[in-house]
Amino acid sequence: MPEINFVGKSDSGLKRRNNEDRFMVRSELGFCLVADGMGGAAAGEIASRIFAETTLEIFSTSAGRSEKDTIELVQRAFNFANERILSHVKKNPHHKGMGCTAELMAFSDKGFVIGHIGDSRTYCLRDGQLKQLTQDHSLVQNQIDQRLITPAEARNHPLRNVILRAVGIKKKLALDLIRGIMFSGDLFLLCSDGLSDMVDDNQIRNILFSTAPLLQKVEKLIESANAAGGYDNITVVLADI
Q1: Rg (Cα) of the chain, in Å, rounded?
Q2: What is d(CA 159, CA 86) in angstroms, rounded to the nearest whole number?
Q3: CA 136, CA 176: separation in Å to the nearest integer?
Q4: Would you call 183 helix, strand, or coil by DSSP?
Q5: Residues 125, 187: contact at Cβ < 8 Å?
Q6: What residues pair up with 132 in beta bridges, in sequence order?
Q7: pTM of the full structure
Q8: Whole-angstrom distance, CA of residue 176 vs CA of residue 115
Q9: Which pLDDT band, with edges at 50, 70 and 90, does 103 fall under?
Q10: Backbone angles phi, psi at 225, to 5 degrees
Q11: How many structural domains comprise the chain?
């Protein structure tokens, strides 16, 4: 496995009192994640924490691993977290409706595996080109796919926050798995929608493509989201190959 440098940071934004986002970077275990809680009344914060803690527990049992092992670990992390959030709601009915979107990126001896649910995103900057690797599980993305609205119209759509998939909402989990090969110089970005709703892809690309250190890039992305309004929690993780 090549050397990977991870940096992550989360900010509550300018409009929210609490931060329901969660991130985790564990270079020794070869994974990073971003989870965006939903449900309010502190329940979203609990859901994203459950996802992060469950993932750490699952990955702590593994060392060097094949792509097959990595896929199984990612699936197990999502499934166990889903079960634990549902169990929490059963014991705490006043938290009904809580859940989280989640990006989990894990590296194997051959490449990377991404587990994705919701409208948090994973991008890759390669050879100066920024590519979104995940597709939002949202109402407006469905409308874009059906060519009912344009991506520009989606940015200010009144229903842009309607999520169609999340961890902890249904017993049967519909998980997207994305696999790929990594190359030296690749820069991966995991972020909550607090960044992607506020900062367009071109601006994200310019910040990532700069010569600034990783931490400064993370801070500049968060600063840009706040400068655009900071309406939501903002969480950014970078993985530099």
Answers
A1: 17
A2: 25
A3: 10
A4: coil
A5: yes
A6: 123
A7: 0.92
A8: 6
A9: very high
A10: -65, -40
A11: 1
Please state, in angstroms and as integers, the Cα–Cα distance from residue 240 to each residue in 6, 172, 180, 191, following that order.
Answer: 6, 34, 15, 15
Phi, psi dihedral angles at 127 (to 5 degrees): 55, 40
Tell me the mean pLDDT in the region 50-64.
Answer: 89
pLDDT, residue 2, reads 74
The yes-or-no verdict on residue 156 having pLDDT over 90 is no
Q: In DSSP terms, which residues pair with 147 in a beta bridge?
A: none
- What is the mean predicted confidence (pLDDT) over 83-109? 94
104 Rama sector, left if φ>0, alpha if ψ -120 to 50, beta otherwise: beta
Tokens encoding 159:
């229903």
Task: Write down the residue that tokens 């809680």 correspond to.
Answer: 37
Gap between the Cα atoms of 4 and 112, Å rounded: 12
Please state the rounded mean pLDDT for residues 222-236: 96
Range of the domain at 35: 5-240
Q: In what order do the strands lie in the sheet with 187-191?
A: 5-11, 234-240, 187-191, 121-126, 129-132
CATH number at residue 153: 3.60.40.10
For residue 240, the Cα-to-chain-centroid distance in whole angstroms is 16
Can you tell me the distance from the alpha carbon of 65 to that of 113, in angstroms, rounded to the nearest whole number?
12
Residues 6+ apart with CB under 8 A from 174: 117, 165
Q: pLDDT-derived band of residue 51, with 50, 70 and 90 as boundaries? A: very high
